[in-house]
Design a protein that fits this description.
Blueprint lengths: L1 E8 L2 E12 L2 E12 H9 L7 E3 L3
Antiparallel strand pairs: 1-2, 2-3, 3-4
Length: about 60
């Protein structure tokens, strides 16, 4: 299952793209990509160049 997740740090919302899968009947995070704050996401979407995603592996 893929979704956008919002995390709050110092009153600023940061967004992550996350993918979860069921492992042994329980949901487990398998992929997380940092997207940045909302303003940065909007700027990247409206600019001519495509953003470079940063992948984070969770164990």
């Amino acid at each position: 299952m893929a979704l956008l997740k919002k995390k709050i740090k110092n009153r600023i919302y940061y967004y992550y793209y996350t993918e979860t899968k069921r492992v042994s009947g329980k949901p487990k995070l398998v992929k997380q990509v940092y997207l940045g704050p909302a303003e940065e996401i909007y700027r990247k979407l409206t600019s001519a160049e495509a953003p470079e995603p940063v992948e984070v592996e969770n164990k």
